[in-house]
Amino acid sequence: MMQPSVDVAITATLRPALLKESLTSWRDNLWRDYAPLRGVVNIDPVGEPGASVADVLAVCREFFPGLIYNVPAEGNHAAALRWAWANATAPYVLAIEDDWRLVLKRDLAEVVGIMATRSTLGFLRWNRYPVGPDSAKHGETLFPWNGDYFECPKDARRRRGFVTAPNIMSLGFVHDVVAVLPNDRQPEHWMQSCPPETHAIYDRWEFGTVGKPNDGPSVVDIGSDWLLRNGRRHEGGAAFIHWTANGAKT
């Protein structure tokens, strides 16, 4: 039986070496030879001096036989995420960025199988922190282990919000988010602030964390060191939309 198709929605920048490190980890530790798999990549024109869009596309083509991409005139993280998600068409969408390395092995077919058995499961996130024997802690909220994943309690969904990457989502959930997502707000912070536009989404969709009891961290941030080495920062700190270098927007 053919496996459900998966689109890998990537928000990338002109950092080909970092992207290759990230994609290698996701291929080796998650999707391996899973098919069909397609790349949906937004490439913001900011990053390493001398790096080109062609360099980034060359990396992407090493991993995805099918690929669509977008290169906007300027970098905007909200618009980048919106484009990548809006152009996904597969039943399941794996959302990653170019600066997260997956360190915990999982089987994409198994994760997709969990999604497929729960029609109201909107997304599962990968966690950067270890989890316990019977729950995963997010802030002050415990996500209990339900036998398949760590599930956010229904009464905590609006309070906890969700992370935009890395995660795997159902296409219906993606459509609901794209319909309300603004281009002038950092997507994750906006969703986690639970504005009225998101209430119906949180009420409709279940979500949780990929993993098994006593797992270590699933992902590692490999972007922060790059920012420090290259004198870059996110405008607005963690709630960024644009990149800056020495105080100037790029």
In short:
Helix content is 31%, strand content 27%.
Walkthrough of the structure:
The chain is an alpha/beta fold and 250 residues long. It has a single domain (6-241), classed as Spore Coat Polysaccharide Biosynthesis Protein SpsA, Chain A, CATH 3.90.550. Helix content is 31%, strand content 27%. The protein contains nine helices and 15 strands. The chain has helices at residues 16-31, 53-63, 77-86, 108-116, 157-160, 171-180, 187-192, 199-204, 224-229, and strands at 6-14, 37-47, 66-70, 92-97, 100-102, 121-125, 135-138, 141-144, 150-151, 167-170, 206-209, 219-221, 232-234, 243-245, 248-249. The chain has an eight-stranded mixed beta sheet with strand order 3-2-1-4-10-6-11-9, sandwiched between helices. Helix 1 packs parallel to helix 2. The longest helix is centred in the N-terminal third of the chain and has 16 residues, at 16-31. The relative contact order is 0.17.
Descriptive terms for the model:
eight-stranded mixed beta sheet, disordered C terminus, 250 residues, Spore Coat Polysaccharide Biosynthesis Protein SpsA, Chain A, three-stranded antiparallel beta sheet, alpha/beta
* Main beta sheet: 8 strands, mixed
Largest beta sheet: strand ordering: 3-2-1-4-10-6-11-9
User: Over the alpha carbons, how many angstroms does the gyration radius reach?
Assistant: 17 Å
N/C terminus separation: 47 Å
Low-confidence stretches: 235-241, 243-250
CATH topology: Spore Coat Polysaccharide Biosynthesis Protein SpsA, Chain A
